[in-house]
TrEMBL record:
Gene Ontology molecular function: any one: hydrolase activity, acting on ester bonds
Name this polypeptide is given: G-D-S-L family lipolytic protein
InterPro entries tied to this protein: SGNH_hydro_sf (IPR036514)
Lineage: Bacteria, Pseudomonadati, Bacteroidota, Flavobacteriia, Flavobacteriales
Keywords: Signal
Leader sequence segment: 1-20
């Protein structure tokens, strides 16, 4: 039968020691401090989960303390910055109570319990009930207005903190903002402006494509639709809507002379959530299994060729039975909804061999199936396997007869488990448009700009060294990202804060000491005080 397979993952949690090739001033010496031309006395932070300090799949107090916005506020205090009020969660468990009942959509944080074997991390939720009640309203005002889950247009939406909006279908408000919105009718931007900020940070737009990406493309590309009220939670925001909203936000924030720093967006598919699981983790198959599948898939390739379509399936590698040799691994079997449905011709071609019933089953099962791919030439073509999908690969699909029930091998991974090349292309187009808007607005308003797209590219390609540390975009071992594969670790947030400080210095002539990322942990333990 099929082997119990997993993909390889480096498990060493030690960080590489190397000489510094980063110019971070993170270790020593007295640095003269100056605000330059900026006034940090009233700093307001706007954004989504990153601004809030979200980490390890939850918002919790320690994560909020180690978020980049709080680190910035602490450094701003060296040059005249004032207090920075945060709408803290009640505990370090994470999760939310809705009228005293835990909501499964807002679970506790996760932690690394160890490794199940040399290649499989054991990531588990912390135990204990959440204690943060959504309807126990906090009294502000709050300087940190980062709202997990917020898209760009949510920041200007009145009633985004209305408790009644949580009961609508779909919800029209956000439980995190419900906790600390100044009034039920207010908006995030209104609560920001009410405090007369002298300096602001704005990092927004990631969620405008993240829901689509993290759901495996289960959503709609709303490009061309100017009405966000009609969008689903997993949809891609129309770039024209983003442009209008972003201009509105910055015009409002700068109307009274406030200065600020903004950040552009990395490509979502470069995050560990999308890059950890390879497209081809299936080990060489038993010879009989490989021969049977190659025969069926080869026949479907011939059907595709007859319709002037490219081949959909690779030739699968069989195990030669020699433990001294290592065969090539095989790609995952996936559904691609952009493919023409070949169910009818597959059924017709295989009926004489398999019989009408089995042939019809195979036709429906593989009509839009193909093997996942990663090709760099002549043109890049890459499918991304979502991090949670690793738990599905090789399992048995209930209700499907053998031998067609092994997930990812004989039973295709469904749309929500994979971000296909075509879906990535839609995300890239939208992200590029958002970044053009951010760049244009930053230039027009003279704002500091953090190039997180370039930072992520550096993390992916060799990583970043500072002092005796090395940070990369690798899951768990890279030190930059938390266990959810999307949000930074405490060390990652510290590094981000330094990049904001550099951009501020370059634009406003300030001199504000950076922090040492090495003083921040890369994993939170199971128990936090």
């Amino acid at each position: 039968m099929i082997k119990n397979f997993k993909w390889l993952l480096l498990v060493s949690l030690s960080l590489s020691i190397a000489c510094s090739d980063d110019d971070s001033d993170s270790t020593g010496g007295e640095v003269p401090v100056s605000p330059g031309s900026a006034d940090f006395s009233k700093y307001i932070a706007l954004g989504d989960s990153f601004a809030a300090g979200y980490s390890d799949n939850a918002l919790f107090k320690k994560g909020q303390e180690n978020g980049y916005t709080n680190i910035l506020a602490q450094q701003f205090q060296l040059v005249g910055g004032g207090a920075f009020a945060i709408p803290y969660m009640n505990d370090n468990i994470g999760g939310l109570l809705f009228g005293g009942a835990p909501n499964p959509s807002f679970g506790p944080r996760i932690y690394l319990r160890g490794f199940l074997n040399a290649s499989t991390p054991n990531v588990q939720p912390v135990t204990g009930p959440p204690t943060t009640e959504v309807f126990a309203h906090l009294t502000g005002p709050f300087n940190n207005l980062g709202v997990p889950g917020a898209k760009s247009f949510h920041l200007i939406t009145p009633g985004y903190g209305n408790p009644g909006g949580l009961a609508t279908t779909p919800p029209t408000s956000n439980p995190y903002f419900v906790r600390f919105a100044s009034t039920p009718a207010t908006s995030v931007i209104a609560d920001a402006i009410a405090q007369s900020p002298t300096f602001f940070s704005l990092w927004i737009g990631g969620n405008d494509v993240l829901g689509y990406a993290s759901s495996g493309g289960v959503g709609v590309n709303q490009t061309g639709n100017p009405n966000p009220a009609t969008y689903g939670s997993n949809d891609i925001t129309d770039p024209a809507v983003f442009e209008s909203v972003y201009n509105n936000l910055v015009n409002t924030l700068t109307a009274n002379g406030a200065k600020g720093v903004v950040a552009n967006l990395p490509y979502i598919n470069t995050l560990p959530y999308f890059t950890t699981v390879p497209y081809n983790p299936v080990p060489a198959l038993p010879p009989a299994n490989a021969a049977q599948l190659n025969q069926i898939f080869g026949a479907i390739n011939q059907i595709a060729a007859a319709g002037n379509m490219p081949a959909r399936f690779s030739v699968l590698t069989a195990d030669d039975g020699n433990p001294a040799t290592v065969e090539a691994t095989n790609p995952l079997l996936i559904i691609d909804e952009t493919l023409p449905n070949l169910a009818a011709p597959i059924t017709s071609a295989l009926t004489p061999v398999l019989g009408a019933t089995t042939a019809g089953f195979v036709g429906n099962l593989y009509g839009r199936a193909r093997h996942s791919k990663k090709v760099t030439t002549p043109a890049p073509f890459v499918d991304y396997i979502l991090l949670p999908t690793r738990a599905l690969i090789g399992t048995t699909q209930a209700g499907v007869p053998a031998p067609f029930n092994t997930v990812g091998v004989t039973y295709p991974l469904q749309d929500g488990a994979v971000l296909t090349n075509a879906e990535v292309a839609d995300i890239k187009v939208a992200t590029d448009a958002y970044n053009t808007t951010i760049q244009n607005v930053a230039t027009a308003k003279g704002l500091a700009l953090v190039d997180t797209k370039a930072i992520m590219a550096q993390l992916l390609n060799g990583g970043i060294r500072f002092g005796n540390y090395h940070m990369t975009a690798s899951y768990i071992t890279g030190g930059t990202f938390s266990l959810d594969g999307i949000h930074p670790s405490a060390r990652g947030y510290a590094y981000i804060a330094n990049q904001f400080l550099k951009a501020i210095e370059a634009t406003y002539g300030s001199s504000i000491p950076e922090v040492n990322p090495g003083n921040y942990q890369i994993q939170y333990p199971q128990t936090l005080n």
